[in-house]
Amino acid sequence: MVHRDYGDVSGEVLLDISPDRIEITNSGEIPEGILKNSTSFELYHPVFRNPMIAHMFYLRGKMEKRGRGLALIKQLFLDYGLKSPEWISGDGFTTVRLYGIPETIRLNARMRNLVLTLKIGSTISREQYEDFFERKISEKTARLDISKLVEGGWLSKMSDGPTTSYVRTNKELPDITR
User: Of the CATH numbers 3.30.565.60, 3.40.50.2300, 1.20.1600.10, 3.40.50.620, which one belongs to the domain with range 14-99?
Assistant: First the structure.
């Protein structure tokens, strides 16, 4: 409602609901230079196509007037473990795809082995992860594995810097990965 181009009398707001996503399309384009690609964008100064409607939404606490809408929407989806929304803008229309099914974290054999072996509440560092696999993996591989385990909720980061460690959470592996 707020961003629609009401000057285009043929423009509509279209809603397409699929099992894995919702797509909202309306007339009007995101201003030039904001979108870098479908999931990332530059910081921008707010652009109000419909300032009176935007102000009503602002007064009701339903939006802000800082030009952070795209970033806030994206961050909420990522916080819920969902795929980043995608914005497509061109030919007089803008579409936003909102994904509702969390991306599946694919665990390799090493990661499954660690989750099954490490007791809930136990801590591990990146160096200890490498030792766990008898130093047969590189530091980069260890970092990538650990980041996926954190993203999936099997490990939780406890500190930063040279003393970075991770604690095993109580999240269990899905039955199909055991």
Answer: 3.30.565.60
Mean pLDDT taken over the chain: 87
Reduced to 3 states, what is the DSSP secondary structure of residue 6?
coil
Q: State the pLDDT at residue 11.
A: 72
For residue 83, CA distances in Å to 86, 88, 97 come to: 9, 16, 10
Cα 69 to chain center, whole Å? 14
* pTM for this prediction: 0.55
Alpha carbons 113 and 136: distance in angstroms, whole number? 15
Q: Which of 58-67, 102-111, 139-148, 168-177 has the lowest mean pLDDT?
A: 168-177
Query: Closest by alpha carbon to 71, among 59, 79, 62?
Result: 79
109-177 CATH fold: Arc Repressor Mutant, subunit A (1.10.10)
* Residues contacting residue 38 through CB under 8 Å, at least 6 positions apart: 86, 87, 88
Q: Start-end ranges of CATH 3.30.565.60 in the chain?
A: 14-99
Taking only the tens place, the pLDDT of each residue in 73-116 is 888 888 887 889 999 998 888 899 999 877 678 899 999 999 99
